[in-house]
Amino acid sequence: MPQSQFILQQGLSKELELFPHISEFGLRKNNTIQLNSFIVSQSDNLQIYFIIDGKFDWIINHQHQVLYPGDTALVLPGQVVGGSKGYLGIGAYFWLHLQVKKIDANGKLIPGEWSNLSSGDCQAIGKILLLNNLPVLKVKEVAGILQEMRMEITSQELGYITRVNHIIDSLLIIIARHSTRQAISRRDFPQTFLKLEQTLRQNLAHQWTVEEMAAMVGLCSTAFTEKVKNYTGFSPLHYLINIRVSEAVKLLKREKVNITDIALETGFYSSQHFSTTFKKLTGHTPGEYRKSNNSYK
Amino acid sequence: MDCIITVEIGTNAVRVMAFDLDGNVIGSAKGSYPTFHIEPDFSEQDPDQIFITTLYVMKNLLTEKIHPRNHKVISICFSASMHSVLPIDKNGVPLGNAITWADNRGKKEAQELKNSPLGAKIYDATGTPIHPMSPLIKITWLNRNDQERFKQTYKFLSIKTYILQQLTKGYLLDYSLASATGLLNISKLCWEEEALNYAGINADKLPELVPVFHSPGKLRREYQQSLGLSEDVNIIIGSSDGCLATLGGGVWDEGKATITVEDSGAVRVVGKEILKDKKQRLFNYLLTDEYFVSGGPTNNGGVVFEWFTNQFGDFKSPYDLEYTMSNLVKEALNVPVGSDGLLFLPYLLGERAPIWNPYARGSYFGINIKHEKGHFVRATLEGILYEIYSIGKTLQEHVNINTLTTNGSFASIPFCTQMLADIFNKPVSIGKNPDSIAQGAFLLSATNMRIYKSLEEAARSVVLSVAYEPQIQNHAVYQKYFSIFERLSSKLNNEFEDLVNLQHEPW
Q: How far is A223 from chain B (nearest CA, A)?
């Protein structure tokens, strides 16, 4: 495809003045190997690359990756990226560096005010990108999206600011969708569910919704609920309660943690909520349970 | 109406069923729990999650289907997978996760003991083949490789012991599950000194032994409350999945065997004698002090066909494994018996009976240019069933088998049942209740309540389908291919081992 090179950099290019969240955007055609042109270093923003032509041998997040035309590479804030031999490689690619505010401890992506993504979407997208951790995806739409974005930024027609920001939002959505589709084999639900379960356990304090859990495995809520029921015998929320109580039982027996802390750590709204749920199942309040299994001294 | 509840603590899930006193299923529910593989050979489960899941599923079934109809629960009978080990400390708190039957961490220890004269002696006394599955080997492994946990251990429990201790009190183990530990002398019905010595423990590190009809006592008051049950409910410790599947399959008389194939599989017979196999290929587990359930287990049952389906099936509607599987079976129908000379060794997960080779691996053999996808489907099914047949053949060196019953989701696919009849050249019936383990637990409870005079009578009450009759011309073809299958299975030992070592190499 006959595309010319370009480079836009925050602070240097006037075109980006109204887009403070875009640190760099460009298309590069590289014909020579220059030593030390792409040293592995930590990224402080969200980097998206789309390979148009050639072959690139890179390190992303400590993993060796060979990128071919049609590949989209994703580098999350804090991850490292660079050529595996310190140089770029020969070929052509788009790149976009986005100054997202951060992906916080709960896995929520916080893009900034320019974005129209809802809070729930940011939560889901951030978690998906963080947990799937697939640095290389096959997403053919990305080329067209970036091309359109370039047109909008350079031609500056009516409404272009809104359009560009929309385009970035949809880029993030499309990448997240592909990431879940690629991360899970649609054929193997038990395997997928096991992965999800691990995620739930690691973030038990989080108030998971069915929509969020379904998004993690790339299903709509209805299909997800049906699958989970079929496979585990429980609805997703009941399965979650099951894990919460199981973890709570362990903590009550083993550690001298106060009951409110256990409640919050295992994802109950309050010690009251913890107590009622726990008693319904075990016949004892957490306090009584601890007393009758009084093992830690 | 009075009813009996059965609780089956299985490999991936707990299944709770309710029966009326005539043996009709009036309700069922299940809840799954995960298995953790933190290292390739490890297979562990969280005992507290199993407990909470059990409680949760019982509560759901009782509040949704039993209490609203005013059914009165009079007894609850338990069954569980064999061979699990759960170390607990002096306060009864689990020291880490439970180690399940599928755990292979002790493969070195097992090989060492198996090849020694002591191993042969222990097998003779305990009836459990020397294998990483056996608690004898697992405890030995802990002793040698995890001294800290070993030293802290107050007792080594089975998962069922832990669940029952939580629900009632006391650390108890039925003779059935005990006879699958590799630590019980099955003739004398006491812990086997030499096995204990080998594992490095005393008998007081193990639960107290009780018969399968034993009641561990009343349900704790708090669970009476949460489950809405009265204190008179008779809790029965019950038996193992394998023994109860045999009882529930209606197999009790001479000349009968039962084939169970779910993910894994087994062929079993019941008798009053221990089958002492010189090559240590068969297990002998106790149901009561009078009866032994003998047979051989395979790792490679339905799970292998599931693997095949996942790799090569057409998934038009996402996730629908069963639909895709049944489409594949249809493809196999169009391929002649014997798959036009394509053979499949199903040892994807290593193998137990009869070759007992953890290094064995799968293989398609004899592929030619005319073989199509359908041949591979059929060969896969045939390979899984040849393996079942080779266990049956080993059993027939010791006992006569005239008729077969089958249960479990895989062996009950009509196409597979017919294939079994043809390969064995014997009539095969299917049990009416697809869950023969629960059926067995019901029969045990009902016998305990004197509804049946004896377990024999109970087993005879099981209703079976019309038998699938063998077709002799098919049998002749299968025989020819089986002979090659059998030779291949034992010919490749060195190659299996070399290959597995390469597979384990971190490239």
A: 10
